[in-house]
Amino acid sequence: MPVAPLSQKEIEDRLAELPGWSVDADRLTRTYRLGSHFAATAMVVHIAQVQEELDHHSDLTLGYNTVSLTVNTHSVGGAITDLDFQLAHRVEDLAPGHGAG
């Protein structure tokens, strides 16, 4: 199924469902703070598994006790699509299990 960029209104409406996420230029972004480097590393591995399942790979940054994501869809020129929000929701679902806040 082809992926299409979302309108600004669609992005704003969907963003309201994702506290902590924001738009920076043409990307969804979120940084999580965790209790330790080990917890952050485990969350990165879990996110990588979700990215593989969706076949959608975002920029993912591991800090000492932080995990940051920058999400957009390269195949449509770097715009924000439904696929980006699918990934964001999946990450939100797994974050509490890692103690992410």
Overall radius of gyration: 13 Å
For the report, how would you describe the main beta sheet? Answer: 4 strands, antiparallel
Percent of residues in helices: 25-40%
H/E topology pattern: HEEHEEH
Taking the alpha carbons of the first and last residues, their distance comes to: 34 Å
Query: Per the principal axes of the C-alpha atoms, what is the gross shape?
Result: globular
Mean pLDDT: 96
**What structural class should be given to the helix and strand makeup?**
alpha+beta
Q: Roughly what fraction of the amino acids lie in strands?
A: 15-25%
Counted by DSSP, the helix tally is 3
Number of strands: 4
Kindly report the spatial arrangement of strands forming the biggest sheet: 1-2-4-3
Low-confidence runs of at least 5 consecutive residues: none
Describe the structure in your own words.
The protein is of the alpha+beta class and 101 residues long. 39% of the residues lie in helices and 20% in strands. The chain contains 3 helices and 4 strands. A 4-stranded antiparallel sheet has the order 1-2-4-3. A hairpin with a 2-residue loop joins strand 1 and strand 2. The longest helix has 18 residues. The mean pLDDT is 96.
Topology overview:
Elements: H1 8-15, E1 22-24, E2 27-33, H2 37-54, E3 59-62, E4 66-71, H3 82-94
Antiparallel strand pairs: 1-2, 2-4, 3-4
Helix pairs in contact: 2-3
